[in-house]
Amino acid sequence: MEAELKDMTDDLESLKRSLPDSSLHASVDKLKLHVENLAKMVKSATVQRSKVKDMSAEVVDSNPYSRLMALQRMGIVENYERIREFSVAIVGIGGVGSVAAEMLTRCGIGRLLLYDYDKVELANMNRLFFRPEQVGMTKTDAAVQTLSDINPDVVLESFTLNITTVQGFETFMASLKNKSFCPSKEGSGVDLVLSCVDNYEARMAVNQACNELTQTWMESGVSEDAVSGHIQLLIPGETACFACAPPLVVASGVDERTLKREGVCAASLPTTMGVVAGLLVQNTLKYLLKFGQVSPYLGYNSLKDYFPTMAMKPNPQCSNAACLERQKEYLVAKPARDAAAKAKREAEASLAPEGPLHDDNEWNISVVDDSDLGRIDATSAGALPEGLTHELPSADEFEKSPAPVPADTSVDDLEALQKQLEALNAD
Amino acid sequence: MEGWDPNTKSTLTQIPLLSTKAGPRDGAAWTQRLKEEYKALIAYTQMNKSNDNDWFRISAANPEGTRWTGKCWYVHNLLKYEFDLQFDIPVTYPATAPELELPQLDGKTQKMYRGGKICLTVHFKPLWAKNCPRFGIAHALCLGLAPWLAAEIPILVDSGMIKHKDDASSSNES
Ligand SMILES: [Zn+2]
């Protein structure tokens, strides 16, 4: 088709030259312009590749998955193609979330659910992913536009909403529960939720939803001074939830008191955000495709290139009721979990070749339940690794509450109280 | 309470504290919480009026009491500047504070997140977290919005980013 259009342009050019009447030249030029535009449209339309049915490991220029399937050939990943069965929800399509979405899209993830209520602005252009011509579009629409061009195999669902509002939260919960993509899947309709939001309120909303749905999720964040960040794996009942302890931050080493906050809310760097998105998606791939070690918490201090890690046990006094329920369930399921682990070890042992046991136990694998080793209590600030601090204090104990609530029993009817406030508002 | 001016501190201590830890998804407990919210707001409004420091109007915009709208104002150089005020009660309330919005000032100041949400000081969230569930809407206005208006409105007026409504209309007429 491109060749045909090129011939047509050439023919028009020779027609123009052979025309005795130059007054017709303008009309021929106009026709030529149309043909050239058509040629451009044809070219851009053919750029988008068609969907592929199966991931092939064949190493040819036209195979978008050959380098990923090579992970399987090399023995890093046992079954890479399983990635097409997975659904990942990304909450917050900003500097971290949009890049994480692009990485997962290029990896050929099965389905992405995208949540954001914001629009693309010129002020976002210091970050990756969004382009200036997308300014004014919702971040979800702009992301779908770019991601579907990059990889049409990925099923994209987008939700333009604020998950902290009552209505937004209900839609969020319902979308996570929807199992139409993979009806045979146990639990919710998604394999993992990635929190890429930039505020405490939204993180607490993700935490609430995931605790209620027993949904494993990963949290990510970049500090307001743009020089540190972190990722964290949260498994309801098994690890500390986001409300179990005040949020952890990676100390940048910059004294908070010397930080000049006048006139600014937050700074951002594409580098820090890109690093955090990379760490988050790497942990996601390891979790989904079962290779390597999934980090429970990984911090990033860019000023010192320091990466603290740790693991946190849930807080038995967590203020979140759903977290306490999940903790109870996790304890109840312990015998079954131990039995399954034992059976797995025995199966692996029977598969191992006859002969002496490995005496070079390189990874220090022990047969005792060491799941609690090295895990710190969510509430013990003293046990935090160097370079990590709590961002907020814990709520004061109820009992210690110094000021009693006034026992104003004169009015205790909601409507009457509303009227009383309205009367005050009226004058 | 490090980092707060004495005025804010003394006002805060006079606002009744709340006791029910319930959010908008908690049914009857939320109704109980709403009653406490109203009591605190009524007491705070009365206190402001009697101190000749009346500075906001706020009321629930839906029957569930999850969305609130109203106005707030600030007097600078004897002129009164008034703004729409709105916010939603988050699903994780009262563990997280409502995010107060002044939509008319969206994009006019750096001290604001998208959608006109005011950027609170580093002192607000720690104090709120420490006092959960005893702080409510009235406390958020006293600790969050009042100091924000006092800090930002003079800057916005002096830099010409906002104009007094009389100023604006007279310049339109001329
Ligand atoms: Zn918890």
Structure description:
The complex is a heterodimer of chains A (427) and B (174). Helix content of chain A is 37%, strand content 12%. Chain A has 11 helices and 11 strands. A 7-stranded mixed beta sheet of chain A has the order 3-2-1-4-5-6-8, sandwiched between helices. A two-stranded antiparallel ribbon of chain A has the order 7-11. The longest helix of chain A is centred in the N-terminal third of the chain and has 23 residues, at 25-47. Chain B is α+β, with helices and mostly antiparallel strands. Residues 170-174 of chain B have low confidence and may be disordered. Zinc ion is lined by residues 241, 243-244, 314-315, 318, 320, 323 of chain A.
Descriptive terms for the model:
heterodimer; A: 427 residues; alpha/beta; seven-stranded mixed β-sheet; 11 strands; B: 174 residues; three-stranded antiparallel β-sheet; two-stranded antiparallel ribbon; 5 strands; globular; Ubiquitin-fold modifier-conjugating enzyme 1 (chain B); Ubiquitin-like modifier-activating enzyme 5 (chain A)
